[in-house]
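SEQUENCE-TO-STRUCTURE ENTRY
===========================
Question of interest: how does this chain fold, as expressed in backbone structure tokens?
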Amino acid sequence: MRKPVQDYRGFRLSRLREPQFYHLNYLWGWVGYFLLYFLTENLIPRENCTVIHSRLDDLIPFCEYFVIPYVFWYLLIVGSLLYFMFYAPDQFRNLMKYIIVTQVVAMAVYIVFPNCQNLRPETFPRENFCTWILSIIYQFDTSTNVCPSLHVAYSVGIASVWLREKSVHWSVRAAITVVCLLICLSTAFVKQHSIVDAFAAIPVCMLAEAIVFGKWWKKKWKKA
């Protein structure tokens, strides 16, 4: 088993300013996100939201089985951050920067341009484990503040960082990329997002790419 490159056994909150632990400060970004999430979800009335819809949404069938990759998104975020935290602190820093940039931009959009969607089925076409899970998701995750989709933006960021992590086999990186693609697709099939939300996440991701990996792309361009 590969040995971690970062040892946290001596970690204390008082040592966050030390170079070997300084990258953990990026985790404070989650505190800001959850605070803004609570405020935007509870202080912006639904009647003030613009409904996001595309004709393509009507052509995409509801498929509850896509809830599996949709929910796996949460595990992928935690698993990726934990792996990079122990085995690639630089990539941990890059992923957190990517996430923070997309968080800030998305939250700004939600505040300036409150939006929602009305795509969820009133009743499920069938009852099974996947629809049960989806009913729980519908309860705690409202259909407001959906554009741009953070599910998509985070997934693109995770795939981008993993593809640059050369310490793992290419098959692992390829598998994670496929999973991220399925997660992006799942947002439309479980009717949590309009396809517009996914496309709206693309410029957000491009901004995050430029901020986090601008130097990397510049070197690639010069080599080309």
